[in-house]
Amino acid sequence: MLRTSLLLSVPPLAAFVFIGLHGCGESKTVCDCEMGGFVIVHAPKGEVTEIALTGAACRDAKANCTDDRRGGDRFIAGCEQYTIAGTAAGECSVHVRTKTNGTREEVRTIEDHRDQGCCGGFEVAPSSAWEIPIGDAGVSPVTDGG
Hints:
The chain is an alpha+beta fold. 14% of the residues lie in helices and 32% in strands. The protein has one helix and eight strands. It has one helix at residues 2-22; strands at 38-42, 48-54, 64-65, 81-85, 90-98, 102-112, 122-125, 131-133. The strands form two sheets. Strands 3-4-1-8 form a four-stranded mixed β-sheet, with no helix packed on it. A four-stranded antiparallel β-sheet has the order 2-5-6-7, with no helix packed on it. A hairpin with a 3-residue loop joins strand 5 and strand 6. The chain is globular and about 50 Å long. The termini are far apart.
C-alpha cells in the first residue's frame, strides 16, 4: 500500500515543481533606468534656432524638444531643453545655432553598452558629459563669424 501512495504522489509533485520553475504565465521585466545615453542641451528660452547632428554615433538621431508644455519627438526652435540619443558607438557632433552667439559645436563619445542587461544601450562617455549647457549656463559659445 505504501508503494501505491508514493506513486500517486509523484506526478502532482512533479507538476508543482515544473510550474514553480517555469511559471504560470509570461513575466515581463520592468527596468527603472536612468537617462543613460541621452545628451541634453539646456538653453535660455527662445535662444536655440537650429541643432544639426553629425558623426557615426548620431547619424539617425534627432534633437527633440523636451519642454514640458511643448514636448514631443521633434525639433522645435526656441525650446529650453532638447534630448539627443546616440544611435551607434562613436562620436556625435552636436552643432547648436543660437540667436545671439552663432554656432557652437560639442563632440560627445557614445559607447555601446547594449550587452549590459536591462538598462544597456548607447551611452555618453564619460557619463558626466551628458549635458551641453548654452548661454546663461556659464559656457561661452563659439561664434561662427556669420
